[in-house]
């Protein structure tokens, strides 16, 4: 039976994302036909309680077992609570929570059962966005780039630009908006740049019991230890040709590089490492982007933004400067991608994940019905 979400024309899609920082669930409406963004709609955010966050944190890096089951229950419960506040949604794009990501060995794991959510919310749910890409030889991440392409069109960009997400991990999308289709060779290049906020958060959590270095207050008082920065930049990841992706804790050994430094110098050095990773990544872009539009929580860290501005050859701006919402871009991405999946449009391509051919990755679950895998191979 063909559903409204599979027909042509714009529909109201609701996206939900729980990122690597484990802070909470973002939800956002996008009205789209899966190609053009008509408009952005309401948003919501629900923070995890300390107990919920602890359950999620202890499941990171696990592929199965009781920790995974407990994290799954938290993800389903909190998403249901946030998403039932959007009765206008025709479809829900549910990313879930990444617990483990090793695309070339064990695969990728996002928990939360979209089939259960579809029945709980009485709405079609598109989910498990990354598995098909990984099965087709891709990195399974990043997936926001096809949405970034649509955003570039939405803001009327005509010359190459880049989006930089500074979450726990950083990811960069180079967009050439002169192309008509995101999957066209040369339209997109995307990859994870390296660690962004995760090591800084881990440092201040371990040493000071703080969730993050608010406004870079600690890093601002310190100096960058050049030898530690050089050791970090010698990591083989930076020499790898993109596309490439990371798990949250792939760079947890960064803490060793700053282990001997006092708090402010350690924070300053980790902040400089995040900025330097972006500079290394930009070297792989076909040309210097005309602007770097920064999204994700790291754009609120003025020390990190200053370091980016002083080290990069292009203007660095928060996405708010072009009218986008940097707290919601990832949730909006999964709203947009859900419509593409429902309509069989690709969500990744060789330039974004290294997948062999463009893939529409995802599973559609209808209320009270079996899931339908729509991976087009
Ligand atoms: N005012 C601020 N000053 C410094 N850092 C900040 C500030 N606001 C947010 N952050 C950083 O941003 C992080 C949250 O970023 P974000 O919500 O984009 O992550 P995420 O979506 O969970 O991650 P990912 O994109 O990797 O999945 C916080 O953990 C913190 O490190
Ligand atoms: C495997 C996974 O969940 N990766 C996330 C993570 O968080 C940031 C970066 O690493 C990016 O690759 C991705 O998320 C965004 C939403 C993406 O897929 O575009």
From TrEMBL:
Listed pathway(s): Amino-sugar metabolism; 1,6-anhydro-N-acetylmuramate degradation; Cell wall biogenesis; peptidoglycan recycling
GO terms of molecular function: ATP binding; kinase activity; phosphotransferase activity, alcohol group as acceptor
This enzyme's EC code(s): 2.7.1.170
Highest taxon of source: Bacteria
Residue ranges that the Swiss-Prot or TrEMBL entry lists as coiled coil: none
The reaction(s) this protein catalyses: 1,6-anhydro-N-acetyl-beta-muramate + ATP + H2O = N-acetyl-D-muramate 6-phosphate + ADP + H(+)
Gene3D superfamilies: 3.30.420.40
Xref: InterPro entries: Anhydro_N_Ac-Mur_kinase, ATPase_NBD
The keyword ATP-binding is assigned to this record: yes
A Pfam family the protein falls into: AnmK
GO BP field: 1,6-anhydro-N-acetyl-beta-muramic acid catabolic process; amino sugar metabolic process; peptidoglycan turnover
Binding site for ATP: 19-26
UniProt entry keywords in alphabetical sequence: ATP-binding, Carbohydrate metabolism, Kinase, Nucleotide-binding, Transferase
Job of this protein: Catalyzes the specific phosphorylation of 1,6-anhydro-N-acetylmuramic acid (anhMurNAc) with the simultaneous cleavage of the 1,6-anhydro ring, generating MurNAc-6-P. Is required for the utilization of anhMurNAc either imported from the medium or derived from its own cell wall murein, and thus plays a role in cell wall recycling.
NCBIfam families reported in the protein's UniProt record: PRK09585.1-5
Family statement: Belongs to the anhydro-N-acetylmuramic acid kinase family.
Name listed for the protein in its UniProt record: Anhydro-N-acetylmuramic acid kinase
């Amino acid at each position: 039976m063909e559903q409204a979400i599979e027909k042509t024309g714009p529909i109201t899609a609701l996206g939900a994302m729980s990122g690597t920082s484990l802070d909470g669930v973002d939800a956002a409406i996008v009205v789209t036909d899966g190609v053009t963004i008509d408009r952005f709609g309401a948003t919501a955010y629900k923070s995890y309680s300390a107990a919920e966050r602890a359950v999620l944190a202890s499941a990171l890096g696990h592929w199965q077992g009781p920790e995974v089951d407990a994290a799954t229950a938290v993800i389903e419960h909190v998403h249901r609570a946030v998403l039932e506040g959007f009765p206008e949604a025709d479809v829900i794009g549910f990313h879930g929570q990444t617990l483990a990501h090793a695309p070339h060995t064990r695969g990728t794991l996002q928990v939360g059962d979209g089939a259960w959510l579809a029945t709980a919310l009485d709405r079609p749910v598109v989910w498990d966005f990354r598995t098909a890409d990984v099965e087709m030889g891709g990195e399974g991440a990043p997936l926001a780039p096809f949405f970034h392409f649509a955003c570039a069109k939405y803001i009327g960009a005509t010359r190459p630009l880049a989006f930089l997400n500074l979450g726990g991990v950083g990811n960069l999308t180079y967009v050439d908006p002169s192309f008509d289709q995101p999957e066209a060779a040369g339209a997109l290049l995307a990859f994870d740049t390296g660690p962004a906020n995760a090591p800084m958060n881990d440092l201040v959590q371990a040493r000071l019991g703080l969730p993050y270095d608010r406004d870079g207050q600690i890093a601002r008082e310190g100096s960058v230890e050049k030898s530690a920065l050089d050791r970090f930049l010698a990591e083989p990841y930076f020499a790898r040709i993109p596309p490439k992706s990371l798990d949250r804790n792939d760079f947890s050994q960064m803490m060793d590089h700053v282990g001997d430094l006092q708090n402010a110098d350690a924070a300053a050095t980790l902040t400089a490492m995040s900025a330097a990773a972006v500079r290394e990544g930009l070297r792989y872009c076909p040309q210097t982007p005309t602007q770097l539009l920064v999204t994700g929580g790291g754009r609120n860290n003025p020390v990190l933004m200053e370091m980016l501005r002083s080290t990069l050859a292009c203007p660095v701006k928060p996405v708010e400067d072009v009218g986008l919402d940097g707290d919601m871009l990832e949730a909006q991405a999964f709203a947009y991608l859900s419509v593409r999946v429902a309509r069989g449009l690709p969500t990744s391509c060789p330039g974004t994940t290294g997948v062999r051919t463009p893939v529409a990755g995802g599973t559609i679950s209808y209320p009270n019905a079996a899931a339908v895998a729509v991976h087009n191979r």
